[in-house]
Amino acid sequence: MAFEVNSDCRYAENHEWIQVTGDTATVGISDYAQQELTDVVFVELPEIGDTFAQGEPFAVVESVKAASDVYLPISGEIIEVNDALEDAPELVNDEPYGDGWFIRIKVADPDEMDDLMSPDEYREFVAEQEG
Amino acid sequence: MSKQTPLYAEHLALGAKMTDFAGWEMPVSYSAGPIAEHLRVREAVGLFDLSHMGQITVAGPDALPFLQHVATSNIRRLDEGDAGYAPLCYADGGLVDDTFIYHLTGGYLVVVNAANTDKDLRWFDYQRTGFDVQIEDASERTCMLALQGPRAQEVLQPLTPLNLGDLSRFRVDESRIGEADAIIGRTGYTGEDGFELYLSAENAVPVWRALLSAGEPLDLLPVGLAARDSLRFEPCMPLYGHELGPDISPLQAGLGWAVALKKGQFVGRDSLLKERVEGPARRLVGFEMTERSVPRHGFAVEIEGDVCGHVTSGVYAPTLEKFLGMAYVPAKHAAVGTEIGIVIRGRVRAARIVKRPFYRSS
After folding, report:
1. Same domain as B194, residue B127
2. Continuous H helices in A16-111
């Protein structure tokens, strides 16, 4: 399956991407993930001020067929959510690395970024999963 | 090991995502995606591989009395060339299956849910005592396709000598599609005009390809099971395993129109008569989420603080652009307009009972 990997992000095993700018970071799901989900019809986002540990579920993405948890790649506090997804959840399918982002966080521990995959590692990881 | 339909390789070539459904490897959706496929059936035309569905032929001198015995609807009203909906019940009124019966020249074709084919055959075997009938499982050798949508006739007509203009809703005829013998029924499970086609398995590939290419200039898309589910959901057509099951009666499911209590004795009649007279304790209702979220099968329904029902199906309805569901609730709470709560991941989300069906083709 053909999918895009954004070279400016790092990736978690549950197919979230994270892009760090200073002490904040933006999180979404990968192009591979949105293709696997098919049409996204609803995204349940957290509240600003909520905090999550690394690997905790922070959102639920509902596709036509199923609900899936979305996990935070590194610990942090929610400082912004993408309100545009409320009326246009299809942005997750159309622009997974752009307007389809989920949340912004204040990074709690930058060292946790080392637990995540580089774009090349992620590409290989997906290829292995696809078998 | 899942079974594959004769069109398995065709689905892969069209970029389908495959899933296991009732022991069959079936396309969930193709490259266009489930919402695009859904809308295309409402606006133009879609082609479905339904070869996982079961086909049971019933023939012989007692074919009609036998079907009258197992079905709750009145099969006597099906003249040759007619097709009709036919629930099958256990003695306690619970549903064995819901089927579609076609009255053909040499007997009847009973089309059953994929997951129930073996069960239905065993059920028929138990019920046939005293009836002079031949019952045969034709599922393996039959390819079933559906061509659904306002342009279905335009796509099919050039490929068949049958005058489709003369084939009205719920009628069936035996003809050809290209070189292949085919049973052509003006039936379907989408709420749109269209056809269901029954062919010999060896003709599946050429007919599938002929329909795809005839449909191309008319915006035809192949359609997977995800869109099939949302398409049947909007017009509130029930699905076995969701709205229907062995512990659910057709009266609770709103299928009273298919329970012919006056046709004579049939399996389940006594229980259904009692339920009709007393009134069902629970009823299937349609609801709209007033708070945005997706209600899914099995979620609890809360009314006035009590958990008293469950969701049977719920979707984002692409034609109506709403989050809708169906649920069983106590009959006293089933009125349109009742405010209900759906328990979604531990939180109660507001919904309101609305009129069924959600959608009717114009």
Report:
1. no
2. 31-37, 84-87, 91-94
Tell me, what CATH number does B63's domain have? Answer: 3.30.70.1400
Task: Tell me the sheet residues that pair with A62.
Answer: A42, A67
B330: domain CATH number? Answer: 2.40.30.110
Q: What is the residue range of B97's domain?
A: 55-137
pTM of the model: 0.95
Rounded-to-integer distance, Cα A130 and Cα A121, Å: 14
Instruction: Find chain B residues with C-beta within 8 A of A67's C-beta.
Output: 294, 296, 345
| Complex ipTM tops 0.85 | yes
Burial of B125 (0-12, 13-18, 19+ CB in 10 A): exposed
Assess contact for B104 and B183: CB atoms under 8 A. Answer: yes
B78-96 pLDDT tens trace: 999 999 999 999 999 999 9
Under an 8 A CB cutoff, do B296 and A67 touch?
Answer: yes
Do B173 and B34 lie in a common domain?
yes
- Number of structural domains (chain B) is 3
Nearest to B33 among A38, A42, A62 (CB): A38
